[in-house]
Amino acid sequence: MFIRMLDCLTVDHSPSLVALAVVVALFSGFTFYRVLDHARMRSDHGQIGWSLMAAFVAGGGIWATHFIAVLGFQPGTDIGYDVALTLISALQAMIFAALATLLLLSKSPIAALAGALVLGAAIGIMHFTGMRALVFSGTLEWDPTLVALSLAMGSVLAVASIFVERGGPSLVQSLAATVLFGAAICILHFTAMEAAVLRVDPSQVARSGNLSAFLLGLAVAVVAGAIVIFSLVTVMFDRRAHQATAEARGIRSIFESTQIGILVCQGDTIVSANKTFHQLAGLGGSTIEGRKLCEFLDLPVLDHRKPHLHDVETELLTDSGMSVDVAVSTAPVRTDGTLSHLIEVRDISEQKRARSDMLHLVNHDALTGLPNRRLLNAELKNEAAFERPFALLWIDLDRFKEVNDTHGHAIGDALLREVALRFRFVLDDRHLLARVGGDEFVVLFRSQPGRHDPTQAAAVLVDAMADSFIVEGKILQVGVSIGLACYPDDAASAEDLMRKADAALYHAKKTGRSRWHQAA
Q: Is the CATH number 3.40.50.360 carried by domain 261-350?
């Protein structure tokens, strides 16, 4: 049988056209798998179009391979071709290839097997219909054994080709699948050609073939060339478009998943916003596109003259009317000749709270919560810079050391907290009360016309300490000595004022305690 097939190839066919048929089969197989792979990657309506393209490539390749080989067939008699049957054979190949392609899009192995068998059927049905298109003086008969063998070999090779192609995207597997596809077409064709017996009968008057070998060859060349070139070029360009779409989707995915609010604006109009910004602005599922940026952020108009903003702190006004502390950065972007601005919006509420907490710790006494010496010094400098009158009351507790020595430091600390509360209660809110160390307190007295003067405040503080304290069940009695100095009457600078107040405190303690004394 092998010798008979070899004779069929070398004696009954033109070697050059046989070689061309093999090349077309291989090229069609390679293109078919590329288009099929591209169709699998699509999840939208484009998949249908690419599936039809794959069917056209496979069916057209099968058809072109057959008729190139038939054009090289040399049976020793004149041959013509029936136009109708030739067209029907092409249509059959493409319809069966379309059905096979739809099955091959599935990931199911059973669907793949069914698709491969349908593809094998496309090759077989197309071949035998195409052979019926031959017009000559005589009859065409078939060897049933070889016919069955040709169909079986074509189907097995088609199945092998499909499963090799589905095994992975490597170049080796792709080439192996291409070779098996080409072999399925060629082996079925030439085995079936050996199964065909053309019995020439010169006495018969052959009906005229209405399609000449030249026209058929031209049609085959056009179809084969168009299939291969158009398919490869289209796949190349569409892959680039698909890659660009995938990249755009990837960028959009990053745009949506980032924890920073992102806006794209043209002028003051918002054209896009990610989920994080929607959440920050409390928008829920409402649409933000088309709304004005100034509805949410107080920023300068974004144009080419102000291309960049870096970490500008402002407030984001939410849809509910609440405000959120945010830091905003902007950068210009140009797409399709249109200037837009990419705006990053970061929620800094936690940072500001942490910053405020840190600043409070730096500027306040940990035990009493009162301002410390650092904050007092800053406030004194501010008051002196405005050159308006104020006073300083330097306070020291009397008999506090006895409390510490008798009851311990824990009781002493508790007493200091109680003293701070009593001082706050009797002082006006406009004055600054600070703890500057140990049992020392300072009042920055801000004078106002018609209100108490610092001497009255000093007397009130002394009187406030006349009542005893109850701390953890213990009755404790302490008093205060106060040194008073006024700016600018008693000193020309904040530093001199503190020294004068401290000296006045020393004098008050020296002359009897539980009293106040003003610097001379």
A: no
